[in-house]
């Protein structure tokens, strides 16, 4: 009888000890399991693209994209011309912008990220030189004339051939934005992009 009671007490003590020892483990395990998930969630948040070093606030200023494009072409006449090593980095970035622009699939965030990478591939001297050019819509039109491109003043010239007069004002504005320009510069933006890609391919 005493042996039975003793065994019962021992079994009860073992159960109590197991319960007390196991209780702090559960929260610790849950916390350890939750931490990787939190870290993973934080890693998913995309980093904001750094601000452009090019000013677009002056009168008639070209957008960042066209400043980089036209500025790159003008650098060819200086000691700050893009090098072959830089061309290897810049070419796929500009090709990516051309591909997404032509299909209309690029989001503003994606385009800004590509432009940020393009600026990062240029040197401080090159960016300073482009910024100092203070490139305007007039500069773009003059470049277009030098390339034998038709520079009109109407919406058709801005949209390019085959744009279609059936487009709504909103659709026309969207297409102009996709081509990186406004007004009469929109139709030349694609030609400007192609010219820079051709230059980089020749490096």
Task: Please tell me about this protein's structure.
- Helices cover about 70% and strands about 0% of the residues.
- It is mainly alpha-helical.
- Helix 3 packs across helix 6, helix 3 crosses helix 10 and helix 4 packs antiparallel against helix 5.
- The N terminus is likely disordered.
Structural class: mainly alpha
Stretches where pLDDT falls below 50 for ≥5 residues?
1-7, 22-46, 153-185
For the secondary structure, the number of strands is 0
Report the C-alpha radius of gyration, rounded: 31 Å
Report how far the terminal alpha carbons are from each other: 99 Å
What's the helix and strand layout?
Layout: H1 2-22, H2 25-44, H3 64-75, H4 84-103, H5 108-121, H6 124-133, H7 137-146, H8 155-159, H9 169-178, H10 186-201
Helix pairs in contact: 3-6, 3-10, 4-5, 4-10
């Amino acid at each position: 009888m005493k042996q039975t009671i003793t065994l019962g007490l021992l079994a009860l003590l073992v159960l109590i000890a197991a319960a007390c020892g196991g209780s702090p483990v559960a929260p610790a395990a849950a916390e350890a399991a939750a931490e990787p998930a939190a870290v993973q969630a934080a890693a998913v948040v995309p980093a904001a693209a750094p601000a452009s070093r090019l000013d677009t606030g002056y009168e008639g200023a070209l957008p960042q994209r066209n400043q980089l494009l036209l500025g790159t072409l003008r650098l060819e006449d200086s000691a700050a011309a893009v090098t072959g090593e830089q061309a290897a980095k810049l070419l796929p970035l500009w090709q990516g912008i051309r591909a997404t622009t032509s299909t209309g699939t690029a989001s503003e965030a994606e385009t800004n990220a590509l432009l940020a990478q393009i600026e990062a591939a240029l040197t401080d001297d090159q960016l300073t030189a482009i910024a100092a050019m203070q490139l305007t819509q007039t500069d773009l039109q003059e470049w277009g004339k030098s390339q034998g491109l038709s520079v009109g003043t109407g919406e058709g010239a801005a949209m390019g051939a085959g744009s279609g007069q059936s487009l709504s004002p909103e659709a026309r504005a969207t297409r102009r934005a996709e081509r990186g320009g406004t007004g009469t510069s929109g139709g030349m933006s694609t030609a400007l992009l192609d010219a820079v890609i051709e230059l980089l391919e020749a490096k």
